[in-house]
Design goal:
The complex is a heterodimer of chains A (157) and B (217). By secondary structure, chain A is mainly alpha-helical. Chain A has four helices and three strands, in the order H-H-H-E-E-H-E. Chain B has a four-stranded antiparallel β-sheet with strand order 1-3-10-4, covered by helices on one side. The longest helix of chain B has 15 residues. The termini of chain B are close together. Classes of the chains: A mainly alpha (157), B alpha+beta (217).
Chain lengths: 157, 217
C-alpha cells in the first residue's frame, strides 16, 4: 500500500466547539442554581437542616476555566442531591409527628405526657401539643387525659 | 423632580466577555449632582422601604426573577452568592441585622433605595476621575485596581479606555469613587441575562430621582 493511501485512512482530528460546551455548562449551572434556591427555600423555617452551600471559586468575578465550570456544576449537583436527601428524611419525620398529633388527639390516654412542638412538624413558632391529665392528680387517678395546645412564644426577658 | 433628564449610555463590552455572556451590559448616565446629607424625605423613604422586609420575604427573595438572575451570574463567574451577597440581598440582610435601613449620605441612600426597589446592582463613580468611555472587560496580566489592589487573571472589571475603575459585583477603585469633592457623578447599572433593559433604566431613574431630591424636602 502506498504511503498516500495510508494517510487517507487516518480520521480527521475531532474539533471540539468549546464555546458551545461552555454555553451548555453555564446553562446547567443556571438551572442548578434555581434548584438550589428551591431547596434552600423549602428548608425554611427549619433551623437544624444544613444549608446547601457551594463555595465560590475565589479570585472575584472572573471567567472560569472549562474545568472549573465542570467542577462547579458537579459540586452544585452533589450539594442539591445531599440537601434533598436530608430534607426528605426530615419531612418524613415531620409526617410521622403530624400523624402522632392526630393519634394524641384521638386517644390521649395512649400517649400520656407526650409532647410535640411546632418545630417537630416543620412549622414556625413555639406552639406545642402536650398530653396532660385533666384536673391534675384527679385526672391521673381517673385516667382522664387531654391534649393541651399551647401557643405563643414566651416573652423576651 | 419631574424634569430630570438622563442620557442613558450603553457601555462597551469586550468581545470575549460578550461571547461568554451575550446579555451582559453596562448602562450608565452622568449626573450633575454633588454628594450631601440626605434630606428628610429620603430618610423617610428608607424607613418605609425597611418596613417592607420580613424574614420570609428575604429568604424567598432568591427565587424572584431579578435577584435570581444576579445569583446565577454570580455563580457563573465563580462567586458564592451565599457568601458574597448580591447587592439586593446585601441590602435585605443589612435591614434584618440592623433592624432598619439607616441613612448614610445621599449617594449611598440613593443606591440603597434603587437596589432595594429594582434588584439591579448600581455603582456611583466620580465623573471627572473615572474616565471615558466606560465598559466591561477582563483584567489583563499585572493590572491593579487603583494602583494598589492586584486583580485576578481574567477578572471582570468596569474600565475606561486605559484602566479598571471598579470590579464587577465588587468594589469601586479609590481613584474613581465618589468623594465629598465630587461635582459630577456617573451611575452605572449592570445588566445580566434574565434582567430586562427596562429594569436597568428604572434603577438608574430611581437613583437619579433620589439624588436630585430637594435638600429642603
Amino acid at each position: 500500500m502506498a504511503d498516500g493511501d495510508r494517510l487517507q485512512s487516518v480520521p480527521e482530528p475531532l474539533v471540539v466547539d468549546e464555546r458551545a460546551a461552555r454555553r451548555t455548562l453555564l446553562d446547567q449551572i443556571a438551572r442548578l442554581e434555581g434548584e438550589l434556591a428551591q431547596v434552600f427555600c423549602a428548608t425554611w423555617p427549619r433551623k437544624d437542616v444544613p444549608r446547601p452551600l457551594v463555595r465560590g471559586r475565589g479570585g472575584g468575578a472572573r471567567i472560569l476555566s472549562f474545568a472549573e465550570l465542570e467542577e462547579l456544576r458537579d459540586d452544585l449537583a452533589t450539594r442539591i442531591a445531599d440537601a434533598r436527601r436530608v430534607l426528605s428524611d426530615r419531612t418524613w419525620v415531620e409526617d410521622q409527628n403530624r400523624r402522632l398529633i392526630e393519634e394524641m388527639l384521638l386517644e390521649p390516654e395512649r400517649h400520656k405526657w407526650r409532647r410535640v412542638s411546632a418545630e417537630d412538624i416543620g412549622e414556625r413558632g413555639c406552639k406545642h401539643w402536650h398530653v396532660r391529665p385533666r384536673w391534675s392528680f384527679i385526672g391521673m387517678l381517673m385516667g382522664w387525659w387531654q391534649v393541651v395546645i399551647s401557643s405563643g412564644c414566651p416573652l423576651a426577658t | 423632580m419631574n424634569d430630570i433628564e438622563l442620557d442613558l449610555v450603553d457601555g462597551w463590552v469586550e468581545r470575549e466577555l460578550a461571547e461568554e455572556f451575550p446579555e451582559l451590559s453596562l448602562v450608565h448616565a452622568r449626573l450633575d449632582v454633588r454628594p450631601k446629607r440626605s434630606p428628610r424625605a429620603v430618610k423617610q423613604r428608607l424607613r418605609m422601604l425597611a418596613d417592607r422586609y420580613t424574614g420570609s420575604k428575604v429568604v424567598h427573595m432568591r427565587q424572584d426573577p431579578v435577584p435570581w438572575a444576579y445569583r446565577v451570574f454570580s455563580r457563573q463567574v465563580g462567586i458564592d452568592p451565599d457568601h458574597d451577597r448580591t447587592p439586593v440581598e446585601a441590602v435585605a440582610l443589612r435591614r434584618l441585622k440592623l433592624g432598619g435601613l439607616h441613612s448614610e449620605n445621599i449617594v449611598d441612600d440613593a443606591l440603597t433605595i434603587a437596589i432595594a426597589e429594582t434588584g439591579v446592582p448600581l455603582m456611583a463613580l466620580d465623573a471627572e476621575r473615572c474616565g471615558d468611555p466606560l465598559g466591561l472587560r477582563l483584567a489583563r496580566d499585572g493590572e491593579t485596581l487603583a494602583g494598589a489592589r492586584p486583580l485576578s487573571a481574567r477578572q471582570l472589571v468596569v474600565a475606561n479606555d486605559e484602566r479598571p475603575v471598579a470590579l464587577v459585583l465588587g468594589a469601586v477603585g479609590e481613584d474613581a469613587g465618589v468623594t465629598p469633592d465630587t461635582e459630577r457623578m456617573v451611575l452605572c447599572a449592570l445588566g445580566v441575562k434574565g434582567v430586562p433593559r427596562i429594569a436597568l433604566e428604572e434603577a438608574l431613574w430611581s437613583a437619579a430621582e433620589t439624588l436630585y431630591t430637594d435638600a429642603s424636602a
